[in-house]
Design a protein that fits this description.
The structure holds two protein chains of two kinds. Chain A is α/β, with parallel strands linked by helices. Chain A has nine helices and eight strands. Chain A has one domain: Rossmann fold. Chain A is globular and about 70 Å long. By secondary structure, chain B is of the alpha+beta class. Chain B folds into two domains: 111 residues, hypothetical protein PF0899 fold (2-Layer Sandwich), CATH 3.30.2320; 32 residues, no CATH class. Chain B is built from four helices and six strands, in the order αβαβββββαα. In chain B, strands 2-1-6 form a three-stranded mixed beta sheet, with helices on one face. In chain B, strands 4-3-5 form a three-stranded antiparallel beta sheet, with no helix packed on it. Chain B is elongated, with a radius of gyration of 24 Å. Classes of the chains: A alpha/beta, B alpha+beta. At the A-B interface, strand 1, helix 1, helix 6 and helix 8 of A face helix 1 and strand 6 of B.
Chain lengths: 225, 152
């Protein structure tokens, strides 16, 4: 006689984050800012690659900036600030990923129209950042040669939501017996057709194509407006 | 352990819908979780129980619909369900496809709330009260808890 009440909701669990991210993406696009979300496990070389990338883009006269997520400390932000570009830190205090609202908060006071590329260095983690849209234009999954060729198969969710994969520390490939073909094949299995770049930040190998890929993405963003 | 953030988001989203529906205790919540969504069911249940304590969702049953990955295979011209998440190859012909049709879900499907006191019974009770105003004990035939709750 007494019927239970069923609410057929059919909504995204992360609806609030998705809405914030969508609004941010609209602002980024309107301002012509390419936003690059860098995701990888800890120690894969995100900060080193970003430091070099910021330095090179600045040398080309480009207006770039970075937001850096870390569980604790602003060590990475300090490191990146050496490149002379604006860097802001998000300390998540234990939270394993960045959320759109955290980035939104850090954007306060920044003149987006004066920026060309904004990098977001996510917390080092191959699982948790997957579901949180940060309003980025490009999600980049980094994978170092020292991590094992099967990383894409172990973390298909992250690779599957990424737009570009970057294999880092290729200068160590021989020393660790890195199987390049197997890694490329594994990435292809979980994200067919995703472009893959290979870099060695320390020696500079592969950095130019990476920079060119970013610039091409920004041109595409501007043309799509 | 992002499942705590997911559990908190579930609780916030459910609370909003429950408030919109007139409140009440939540008996069950149904979620649809895709296999590519990186959510570990056991961790989510653990976090949900922790985070929902002392809320209207405390003790609610968490029903999780596991959604396998489905791709569109252009070679077969059909949607195919995949046995796992390690390869997006069509199980029929082996061709890889990035056209994912299911498996990324992180959805709140439905909420089951405790029943509201049936309005018909309530009405009967009040009608009964007014029509038997001569009686000194009109309440004796009416459902007591309802009348008590309705008093200002």
């Amino acid at each position: 006689m007494i019927q239970p009440r069923i609410l057929e909701v059919r909504t995204k669990i992360l609806k609030v984050n998705d809405e914030t991210a969508r609004a941010m993406r609209r602002r980024f696009e309107a301002a012509g800012v390419l936003v690059v979300n860098l995701v990888s496990s800890p120690g894969s070389g995100k900060t080193a690659l970003l430091e070099e990338t910021l330095r090179r883009l600045k040398a080309r006269g480009m207006s770039v900036a970075a937001i850096v997520g870390d569980l604790e400390t602003d060590n990475d932000a300090q490191r990146l600030a050496r490149s002379g570009v604006p860097v802001r830190q998000i300390e998540t205090h234990g939270l394993c990923h960045l959320e759109a609202a955290m980035v939104d908060e850090r954007l306060a006071g920044w003149d987006l129209a004066g920026l060309e590329i904004l990098f977001i260095e996510n917390v080092g983690n191959l699982v948790c950042p997957t579901s949180w849209d940060l309003g980025e234009s490009v999600r980049v999954a980094l994978l170092s040669v020292t991590e094992g060729e099967d990383k894409p198969l172990k973390y298909p969710g992250l690779f599957n939501t990424s737009d570009l994969a970057v294999i880092t520390k290729t200068d160590l490939a021989e020393a660790v017996g890195f199987d390049r073909a197997l890694t490329l094949s594994n990435i292809e299995q979980v994200r067919p057709g995703m472009p893959v770049l290979e870099v060695a930040t320390k020696t500079g190998t592969g950095i130019d194509p990476w920079i060119e890929a970013l610039l091409a993405r920004r041109v595409a963003l501007l043309n799509s407006r | 352990m992002h499942e705590l953030s997911i559990a908190t988001a579930v609780i916030d989203e459910v609370s909003k819908h429950v408030a919109g529906a007139g409140g009440g205790r939540v008996l069950a919540i149904t979620l649809r979780i895709g296999r590519l969504s990186c959510v570990q069911e056991g961790a989510l249940r653990f976090c949900f129980d922790l985070a929902s304590a002392d809320t209207k969702l405390s003790g609610a049953r968490l029903e999780i619909i596991d959604v396998p990955v489905r791709i569109w295979c252009p070679a077969c011209g059909a949607e195919q369900e995949l046995p796992g998440v390690q390869s997006l190859a069509c199980p029929e012909c082996g061709r890889l496809s990035g056209d994912i049709r299911a498996g990324r879900e992180l959805d709140l499907e439905s909420i089951e709330l405790e029943p509201l006191p049936p309005p018909s019974t309530e009405q009967t009770a009040s009608e009964l009260t007014s029509s038997t105003s001569t009686s000194t004990e009109p309440d004796s035939t009416a459902p007591q808890p309802l009348l008590e709750r309705d008093q200002p």
